[in-house]
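Q: C-alpha cells for this one, please.
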Amino acid sequence: MNESRFKKALPPPACHYLDAAIGWLELGNPTEAMAELALVPKEFCVEPVVLEVKWQLLARTDNWDKSLPVAQVFCTVAPSRPEGWLHQAVSLYRLNRTQEAWNLLLPMAAKFPRSWVIHYDLACYACQLGHLDQSREWLKKAFKLGGGAEVKPLALADPDLKVLWSEIEHYPLPARESKETA
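A: Here is the predicted structure, written as C-alpha cells:
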C-alpha cells in the first residue's frame, strides 16, 4: 500500500501513527494496525489517506458492516477520487447487496472513464446478477483500459466471473490504453 503521495496532508505525529498502521497492516497484524490508527488525532480521521487505510484494514478482516460507513465518508470528503466509490461498492457487494453495488458504481464509469477497476467490478457485479452479456462488455472495456496482461489473470482467478472463465481464456491481450486507473 503506497499512500506516501497523500500523507503530506498529515503533520507529525499523525503521519507516524498512519505509517505504523500501514506497517502493521502489511505485516498481517490488524490488531496492532487498528491500535495505531486509533492514535491518529480526530481532526485527521476524515483525511482520505486515513480513510483508505481504515477501509483496507476493515476489508482485510472481513468487517464489511464497519467498512461501508468508512467508504461512504470517503465518498463524501473525496468525491473526485474513485477509490471511495470502489470501496463503497465492494462493501455493499460483500454485504450481499450486489444490486446496490451495481447501482452505485454504474454512474462512476462515466465519471471515471479511464478506471479499468471500475469497469472490471461492474463486469463482476453484472455476472453475479446474471447479466452475462453486460458482464462481457464491461470486462472487454476493463481489458482495453487495463491491458489484458494485468486483467486476464485476475479475471481467470476471480470466482465472481467463473461462468465466463472458458471465454476469458480466449480473450486477446490488447495493449494497455492508459496507465491511469482513474
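A few notes: The chain has two domains: 7-61, 98-182. The radius of gyration is 17 Å.
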